[in-house]
């Protein structure tokens, strides 16, 4: 476990879209929740079911080592990830992102940790 200060420090080094290599460590309910990923930062990583293929048999399995992009990180001690490999990404990701996160392409490369005095995202 990390402290709030350590999590803030970790977040301060991360950028949206930053690619991290991770190992899938748990797939608790294939098709229902998502997958937990260890990216070696001392906090858990998670890929939400909404970013994974509709068919759970196409999800990465426990032990899979692959690349993930930083999708979100807020005050909770968890890094939200997006698979880089299209085989592990929802088939209609472009449409999904356009609808639910239309500014994603502009966010890529931006710091995850808000600037001092900015609202926490």
From TrEMBL:
It comes from the Bacteria. InterPro entries: NA-bd_OB-fold, S1_domain. PROSITE patterns: S1. This is S1 motif domain-containing protein. The lineage of its organism: Bacteria, Bacillati, Actinomycetota, Actinomycetes, Kitasatosporales. Residues 17-49 form the S1 motif domain.
């Amino acid at each position: 476990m990390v402290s709030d200060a350590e999590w803030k420090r970790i977040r301060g080094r991360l950028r949206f879209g930053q690619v991290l290599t991770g190992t899938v460590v748990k797939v608790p309910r294939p098709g229902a929740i998502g997958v937990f990923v260890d990216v070696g930062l001392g906090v858990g990583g998670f890929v939400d079911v909404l970013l994974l293929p509709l068919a759970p048999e196409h999800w990465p399995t426990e032990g899979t080592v692959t690349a993930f992009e930083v999708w979100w990180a807020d005050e909770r001690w968890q890094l939200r990830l997006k698979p880089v490999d299209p085989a592990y990404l929802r088939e209609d990701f472009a449409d999904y992102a356009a609808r639910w996160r239309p500014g994603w392409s502009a966010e890529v490369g931006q710091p995850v940790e808000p600037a001092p005095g900015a609202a926490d995202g």
